[in-house]
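Supplementary Note 3. Input sequence used for the single-chain structure prediction.
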Amino acid sequence: MTSAQVDKEYGGDGTAGGPTGGSAPEEGYERGLGSRQVQMIAIGGAIGVGLFMGAGANIAKAGPSIILMYALAGVVIFFIMRALGELLLYRPVSGSFAEYAREFLGPFFGFATGWTYWLMWVVTGMAELTAAAIYIHFWFPQIPQWVSALVFLVVLFGVNLISVKIFGEVEFWFSMIKVTAIIGMIVIGLGVLTLGFSDAGDTAAASNLWAHDGIFPNGIGSSLMTLQGVMFAYLAVELVGVTAGESENPEKTLPKAINTLPWRIIVFYVGALTVILAVVKWTEFSAGASPFVHAFEKMGIPLAAGIVNFVVLTAALSSCNSGMYSTGRMLRDLAANSEAPKLFGRLNSRKTPAFGITVSVALMGIGVVLNYIVPEKAFGYVTSVATAAGVWTWMMILLSHIRYRRGVRAGRLPASSFPAPGGSVFSWVAVGFLALVTCLIAYDEDARISLYVGAVWAVGLLIGWQLLKRRAPRATVGDPAREYASAE
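The predicted structure, written as discrete structure tokens, is reproduced below.
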């Protein structure tokens, strides 16, 4: 079966319902995201608050070994993205994660993945709003955290209601600011190390990476405990999959965006953190403050510190902007498969899922309330919940990829034009790594709350699924998961 035949069978352009027989969740969207925007969204998705702000707490726990943790997690993220890339070129759809889980693992997993990915972005939006409000304190400490969070929420809500082109353009420039700033920070840091200028010039040295109690100053165990926080930093790299249904040329733009991921990780995470920890010794960093801002304050360059604070502010707003975009598309996918109210499936005159975005933004407003009640703990609470939801989403991508590869080997499915290296072997490796991260979350007293929330969420999903089945029983004939199971 050729890719053209598959496209014809699934809807003519590869965007309709696939083998599951579902409707086309992205039908009616405007393909308004050009190559320039998709590439920058992919680049920007790898740079967020998890790096700019969360790295401070991780450095305090792990010392210089945090660089190794980001590198290790980055390798696994690349495995996940190559697995997703193979699925995307097999069938590019806007509700990708839920659609693939529905096709290869069964209807319930599509339902659970769609709603969990939606939850991840609602909660991540709360985290980003919290971080943005904290950054505003750098200039205006008298403004309450919750006020800043509310203002940003309203502005980004307006951006997402206009059109996908406006979203893409705003996200392009947000990402451009982040990329340019990190490269600039690396260059300045290297200048401090080699030329010795600024207030930090006398103490800056590569030896700072091992001279203060070694690379693992608090032990390997403490370093591993940072992995759940490190994984939060990588949330949003999979967003390129959500853009598939609105990309002008997914066959060309998606592989390019995914294949450049290792370089983004090496430069933006490993490179940036290596330079910063060489310029300023790790013992001077703490939770609740951006290590990038602190590094420039230590150099005695106050104007640069202000610029960096502006950059990390845009990083937070960028991620929140992406979250609003993603939640509306995921709710529409669920509605198209009769797994959410039909209202979520409607597009406004500008071809955006306005109702789904509105409901999601209203729930993100809980983050504003948290910033009012517990401003000092709001960021930690929401990031741990978002990480747990992200781990579920990545796990579903990997398991769907493993089932897809089985179907290809058995001749039941066409091969993708963008196969993952190593087949499903690296997907199994990534599954094991995510299982380890889950165990670490359970062991961490502060992060454990996410598993409690996850348990309540799972019960809610099971109840919702049972109610859904009673209202509209699903036919099991033609369910790919059942066919695969019987064939095996």
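The chain is about 70% helix and 0% strand. The two ends are 21 Å apart (CA to CA).
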